Amino acid sequence: PDRASSIGGTDMSSDPTNKQRNYLAIAVQAVKRLERQMLLALDNGNIRDALHKAMELLTELRTSLLSPQNYYDLYMHATDVLRRLEAYITDEDERGRISVVDLYESVQHAGTIVPRLYLLATVGSAYIKSKKAPTKDILFDLVELCRGVQHPMRGLFLRNYLSQVTRDKLPDAGSQYEGDGGEVKDAIEFVLQNFGEMNKLWVRMQHQGALRDLGKREQERRNLKQLVGTALVRLSEMDGVDMKMYSEVVLPKLLEVTVNCKDVIAQEYLMECVIQVFPDEYHLETLEAFLRSIAHLKSKVNVNNIVVSMMNRLSAFARSNPEKIPSDVDIFALFHRHCAAIIKAKSKMTLESILELQAALLNFSSKCYPEKLEYADHVLGFTADVLAKAGTTLDAKCTKIVKSLLTAPLETMQLAVLSLKNYHPLMEFMGFDDRRDLAIRMCDAVVNSGEPLDSVEKVVTMFKFIEPTLKDQKDNKAEDGSKASEIKFRKEQELVARVFHLIQAEDTDMQYELYVKVRSVFGKGGTARIKYTIPPLVFGALALIERVVARIKSNPEEPPKIKPKKMFVFIHQILVSAYTNTYPETAVRLFLKSAAVADACGMESIAYEFMVQCFIAFEDEISDSREQAKAIALITAALEGFTGFSEENWDTLVGKCCQHAAKLLKKEDKARAIVNCAHLFWPTSQSEDAKARRSDKKLLKLVQRSLKAANDCMKEQVELFVVILNKCLFFFERDVPTINLKYLQGLICLIEQHLPNLDENTPEDLATKAYYMNTLKYIRSKKASSDSMYAQLDIEEITST
C-alpha cells in the first residue's frame, strides 16, 4: 500500500496550492538530507550503507499526495542523486573494489518495490556498461520487472527513468553494445515494449478517481504526455531504425498500440508524435498504412487535425526538397481518398472542419504537385459543392479558410490559376470585401510573376476573377469617404493599371482585339475608376500604333488587318466619351499625346482632330484658372514640337492657342502664357517648313504684350520681367532679328528700376533676386568668352550689382 512518507502527518494550509508547495518542500528536504548521508557513505566506501540511504531517499517517490508537476520536481531531485550513485558503482566496479553483478542481485531483495526498481535500473545501467552480461538480457529483465509498479503516475515516471538511463546503452547499429550484447531488433523491441507499458499507465490515469474530477485528470494527463513522447523520440534517434525497419517493425507496432489503447487523448497525441518525430521520407513511403489506421481510431478523435498535420508536414518538405517526392506513388490521390472517407464517415463533421481539411489538401497539392492543375481544381470544385449543399452564409472562420483555399494556388501557380475552372465559382460564396481583397491578391501575384496576358481567354478570365476591382457589385457597400478608404481605392486601381500593362501579344491584330475587350470592361467601371484605368489604355493603344507603323515599314507586303487609323478612332471614342467631361485636365494631356503620335506618323487630319478636341475640352470643361494656365502651357509645348501640319491648319491652331493665352484671367498666368506662345513663331527645328513658319515681328509683338501684362501685375512683377528677359536671351541666341542687344539692355534697365520694390525679408522676393543675379552671371560669362555675341552688351553701368 502507498504511504505518505515523511510528509503524511504535517498540518497544512487549507489552500490546495499551498498544500502542494509544502508537500514538495518537505519531500525535497528529506531527499537532500538523505543524499548527504548517501554521499558520506560513498566517501567512506560503504556501498551497503549508501544503498540503504538511497532506498530511503527513493521512498519519497511513493507518495500520492503530489500533483504531476510537483511529483516531476521531486523525481528530478531523486534521479539526480541516482546518477551520481551509478557513476560511483561503475567506477568502483572497473577498479575491482565491488562487483556490479552481486549488487544487481542484492538490490532485488529490497523490501519496497518502487525504491527497489529505481535502484535496480540504476545498478542495471552500470551492469550493462560493464559488459559482464548480454545487454539485451539486462534490458528485458528490467522492462519486465518494472511491471511490478502499476500505479499510473509512479509507474510512468519509473519507466521514464528506465528509458533515460538506458538510452545510450542500447545495442543500436554502430553501438559498442551491438553484437554479443544484442541486435538492433532487440533495442527496438525493448523501446517499443517500454513505450507500450508507459502508454497503458498513461491511459489508466483517466479511469482512476471520481467522475467529478475527470477534467482535472485529463489536464494532468496532458501535462505528462511528454514522458510518453520521449520514447518515440528515442526511436527516431536510433541509427538502426532505417526505412525498412520503420515500415516493417516500428510503425506497425506504434499504430497497433495507438489503435488498441481506445483512448481519445492518447490516440490524438501519439498520432501527432509519429508525424513530428520521424523523417518525412519515412512518411512518404508509409503513408498508405498511416492513413488507413486513422479509420480505426475512436469516433471522438479529431482525425481532421491528424490528416492536416501530416499534409502540412509533407507540404513543407516538398517545398524544400521537390526532387525527393516519389513519382511512382500518387500521394495526392491517397490523401484525397482518405479525406473523402473521413468526411463520409463523420456525418456530424462541421463545415469548418471540412473546409480545413480541403485547405490542407489544396496546400499539399500546390506544394507537392504545382504542375498538376487538375488536383487543385478538383479540391476547389469539391469545396464549392460542399458549400452549395450547406446553403448557409459563411461565418468569419469559414470565410478565412475559403480565402486561404483561394490564395494558396496564387503562391505556386500564379498565372496558371486562370485555367482553374472551379476558382471563380468558389469566389462567389464570399462577401464583397473578401472577394475584393482576393482580387487584389491575385493582381499582386500576376504582376509579380510578370507573365504576359497574351490571349483573349486569359484576359477575359483574369478580368472575371478581379471583377470586384473593375466595377460595382450588387453586394458592395458604399465607401465611407475616409482618407484610408480613398488610399485603398487608389492603390487598388493603380494595381489594376499595372495588370493592364501585362496585356501583351506578339501579333498587333491580337493586341488590338485584347484592347477592345479591355475597353468594354473599363467602360463599365464608373467615373471613379476610369480616372486610373483609361490613361494606361490610351498609352497602350498609342504604343500599339507605333508598333503597327514600324511593322508596315518593315514588311509592306504583309500589312496588318488593323490599320493605325482604326486605332486612332478607337482612342478618339474613348476620350470624347464621359472621360473628357469628368477629367478634362487629363483628357487634354491624352489628346495632345495622341496628336503628337499622329503627327509623327504623318497623319495630319487625325492629329488636327485631336487638337480640335483638346481645345474643345479646354473651352468647355476647364474652368479653374490655375488648370487653364497649366493646359495652355502644355498645348503650347506640344504645338512647338509638331512638324506635319499644313500652313492653314498650323495658323489656325497657333492662333487659337495665342487667343486662349491672352484670355487667361490672372495677369501673371497671362504674361507667362503669352511669352511661351512666342516660341511658336520661331521653331528651333532647322527644316525648311519650320523656317517658313518663323516670324520675328509676331514674336516681338507677343513679347511686348507679355511685358504689358507683367507690368499690370501687382505681384510677381519683377519675377515676370526676369522670366521674359530669359526668354529674350533664348531668342537672341537663336538670331531673332527683333530681339537685339538694345532690346535686352532695355529689359535689364526695366528690371533695375523695379528691383528696389523687392522685399528682401520674404522668401519669394529673395528667390526672385537670386534668379535675376544668376541671369546676370550668365550674361557676364557669355561676355567673357571669345567671339561672343554679347560683347557689345554693356550691363555694368546700368546694373546696381
What distinguishing features does this structure have?
disordered N terminus, mainly alpha, 36 helices, 70% helix, 801 residues, single chain, elongated
Give a written overview of the molecule:
The chain is an all-alpha fold and 801 residues long. It has helices spanning 16-43, 47-59, 68-95, 100-106, 113-130, 135-145, 152-166, 184-204, 214-223, 225-237, 243-260, 264-277, 280-285, 287-294, 303-320, 331-345, 351-368, 373-390, 396-412, 423-427, 432-449, 456-465, 483-500, 508-522, 527-554, 564-582, 584-600, 604-621, 625-641, 647-662, 667-677, 688-692, 696-711, 717-733, 741-754, 763-784. Helix 21 (432-449) packs across helix 23. The longest helix is centred in the N-terminal third of the chain and has 28 residues, at 16-43.
Strand and helix map with partners:
Layout: H1 16-43, H2 47-59, H3 68-95, H4 100-106, H5 113-130, H6 135-145, H7 152-166, H8 184-204, H9 214-223, H10 225-237, H11 243-260, H12 264-277, H13 280-285, H14 287-294, H15 303-320, H16 331-345, H17 351-368, H18 373-390, H19 396-412, H20 423-427, H21 432-449, H22 456-465, H23 483-500, H24 508-522, H25 527-554, H26 564-582, H27 584-600, H28 604-621, H29 625-641, H30 647-662, H31 667-677, H32 688-692, H33 696-711, H34 717-733, H35 741-754, H36 763-784
